[in-house]
């Protein structure tokens, strides 16, 4: 499914479903159409699928949102949040294989994944503070839950780039390895009884926060994006 030239290539092979971000010339930057395609694919998976592997084509995992393709729009944000929510609330394990840079929305995919394998040369960052963009409530709190408030402040406020080794140290990634290692991990966890996995995921992801912001935070979010759009004109 999804031809060689498709911006998202999706396949199902037994218990494994693969999602390949396939815009290497654009560093796999996400568009509204891409996130919508991924969400539809994941929602339509057969029960036989136990694991979803997300990876990127070319030198980057994902360079974030494609700002030239209306990725700052409300439609993109709704689509992105729907995709991330689908990963989080899936009863299947979601594994991200990060072989190169994961920036912005690319790092948010990591946050929504259950397990992350990073190649030694890979790195990730969330640059909204540097770019003047706003970030949704879920991504901020999810990051803080995973790495702790101190590391989250460094990543969010100082836009600190996180290497693969450091990502494993702070819990953002789970192992350093290559694509073979990622496939081996998928095969291993895909062999586990699915009901136990579903219960563990449900409890681990039973957070009391969503992408929605409080009214005061929403005003700040809207103001930041409005200013960012003005700066890009």
TrEMBL record:
Highest taxon listed in the record's lineage: Bacteria
InterPro entries in the record: ClpP/crotonase-like_dom_sf, Enoyl-CoA_hyd/isom_CS, Enoyl-CoA_hydra/iso
GO-annotated biological processes: fatty acid metabolic process
Catalyzed reactions: a 4-saturated-(3S)-3-hydroxyacyl-CoA = a (3E)-enoyl-CoA + H2O; a (3S)-3-hydroxyacyl-CoA = a (2E)-enoyl-CoA + H2O
UniProt GO MF annotations: enoyl-CoA hydratase activity
Presence of the UniProt keyword Lipid metabolism in the record: yes
Record key words, sorted: Fatty acid metabolism, Lipid metabolism
PROSITE patterns membership: ENOYL_COA_HYDRATASE (PS00166)
PANTHER family the UniProt entry points to: ENOYL-COA HYDRATASE (PTHR43802), IP11341P-RELATED (PTHR43802:SF1)
Record's function text: Could possibly oxidize fatty acids using specific components.
Family: Belongs to the enoyl-CoA hydratase/isomerase family.
Protein name: Enoyl-CoA hydratase
